[in-house]
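Hello,

Our lab assistant flagged a job as stuck in the queue for most of the afternoon. It eventually completed. Since we weren't sure the result was trustworthy after the delay, we are filing this so someone can double-check. Below is the sequence as submitted and the structure that was eventually returned. Let us know if re-running is recommended.
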Amino acid sequence: MDSTLSRTASTARRRRRLTNRIKEELRDLSMQMTLLNHQVGSHLDLRDADLECLDLISRYGPLGPTALARRAGLHPATLTGVLDRLERGGWVVRTPNPSDRRAILVQVIKEKEEEIAFLFSGLNHAMDTVCADYEDAELLMIADFLQRSAKAGRLATDELAGN
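-- returned structure --
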């Protein structure tokens, strides 16, 4: 009986260590991505929030300013400043919303997306190399883990924001 309890306790400790290692590695990944984004923004003369909004518009756009502010976690007045800078820099255009004449949509200018993609090409190439070491089933599991981790992050963010 004592050996069963000892094995259970050992298994629980190992599991906690592995889970903590994953959390630490995710924190490191987050920091590295923040640093990379900062470098990309510096090369493009964009603030961090500007680059984040460009990414959101590129991925989910065209978006209305309210939807973009919500996704970016920015106050609408702050977002107005971001959009003004992006429009002046030639990164985005504001166009009328075809389904609501009073509203506008923001979209990224395609040629500008290519500039951003070029600066992320080193990471993309490195990630291709990393992924080449894994079997398809492992890649599916990693993708699922990352998707679920991102969802956990969104839920924690929403909770802190009081949503």
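-- support follow-up --
The delay was a queue issue, not a problem with the job. The result is valid. The radius of gyration is 21 Å. Residues 46 and 89 are 9 Å apart (CA to CA).
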